[in-house]
């Protein structure tokens, strides 16, 4: 089978971790605004490193002939010329709120099969408010929210705190910093203003859920959809005094492959009732949003211990090294799939959808 791996490669603009203020030993409320990361530091957080791209290529090459196609200005012509049997899509796209849909839309225009979700699902999941509206319609639990599109709306803004403030159209913890959890109306206005001005997009304000947080890897389709072992995010492993959220700092600065945090527990320690509730919630979410082949879904418990959806990632991160603490490969390993087997299982799911397997 001729497989084209389509990707965006991360620009190697290293974040100077030394420039990030280190958290003090004071309490969370007084220190959480002291830790600052420039928004430009996360500009390419969604894109993959060349190491990851080569690891994916090598995994697929065990069974197929694989070519690499960068999702740049030449991608459409290259795909039209090469006409691969199927595309393994890990491209995050380049510009705009529908950027993750760009390559799949091209592929549908060219009638080329591809792995993963279609343009509509990718666009909906990247627009967090649209995803939440659909989930709410189907009574899938998720935090209460509001969307602020312009600074003029701040004058009438009133939202209960504590609250989370995020850019509306981002992934990979882009725009979610330690300061994104706000504890006062003043901090709320300041953070919303920062998102609108720095990211040039609306801010999503969400009710903060104080319970445990999990991420759940989904693999397959229909009756063959598998929920891989659940990963819990252990916030007590973070530096003292920071907020209990999986922020950009937690994901990319404090957790380094050279000195990884013990931040994940897989499988999570869950009683049968909670495990079943989380798995059912994620299956419903996957199906309601029409995800395909694979996704990673983030879940947090509310004050009553009830699981809620906080994020859907139809293009999950797949860093290859164990010490990189990448959650989808971590869950796959616990399910008995090594990195190569995991990726070929995703490809097989796509091939089966197209009756090519």
| Strand segment tally | 13
- State the helicity in percent bands: 25-40%
Helices and strands, in order, run as EHHEHEHHHEEEHEEEEHEHEEHH
Distance between the termini: 10 Å
Q: Strand-residue fraction?
A: 15-25%
* Biggest sheet overview: 6 strands, antiparallel
CATH superfamily: ATP-grasp fold, B domain
Spans of at least 5 consecutive residues with low confidence: 13-40
Q: Under the CATH scheme, which class? A: Alpha Beta
Just name the CATH architecture: 2-Layer Sandwich
Can you put this structure into words, describing what you see?
By secondary structure, the protein is α+β, with helices and mostly antiparallel strands. It has one domain: 2-Layer Sandwich (D-amino Acid Aminotransferase, Chain A, domain 1). It contains eleven helices and 13 strands. Strands 8, 9, 10, 11, 12 and 13 form a six-stranded antiparallel sheet that branches. Strands 4-7-5-6 form a four-stranded antiparallel sheet, with helices on one face. A three-stranded parallel sheet has the order 2-1-3, with helices on both faces. A hairpin with a 5-residue loop joins strand 12 and strand 13. About 8% of the residues have low confidence.
